[in-house]
Every structure is written in structure tokens, then in C-alpha cells.
Design goal:
GO cellular component, one term: membrane
Protein name: Entericidin EcnA/B family protein
Pfam families: Entericidin
Oligomer: single chain
InterPro entries: Entericidin
Number of strands: 0
Family: Belongs to the EcnA/EcnB lipoprotein family.
Radius of gyration: 17 Å
Strand content: under 5%
Structural class: mainly alpha
């Protein structure tokens, strides 16, 4: 039972990391677009 819970938590953490990384890339692209528009 503990092994299943640990596996589930590990998979959840990995999925969260991917989501945060993707959001960071989107925010970076938006910042670049704003910078270019300001020029």
C-alpha cells in the first residue's frame, strides 16, 4: 500500500513539474512579445 501511494505521489509531482515548466515558457513568450511591442 505504501509503495502504491509513493508511486502515485511521484507521478503527481512529475506532472506538476511539467505543468509549471510549460506555464513558465508561456509567461516568458508573453514577456518577449510585450518587450518587442514596447520597442
Amino acid at each position: 500500500m505504501k509503495r502504491v501511494m509513493m508511486l502515485g505521489l511521484t507521478l503527481l509531482a512529475l506532472a506538476a513539474c511539467e505543468t509549471i515548466e510549460g506555464a513558465g515558457k508561456d509567461i516568458e513568450k508573453a514577456g518577449q512579445a510585450i518587450s518587442e511591442a514596447a520597442r
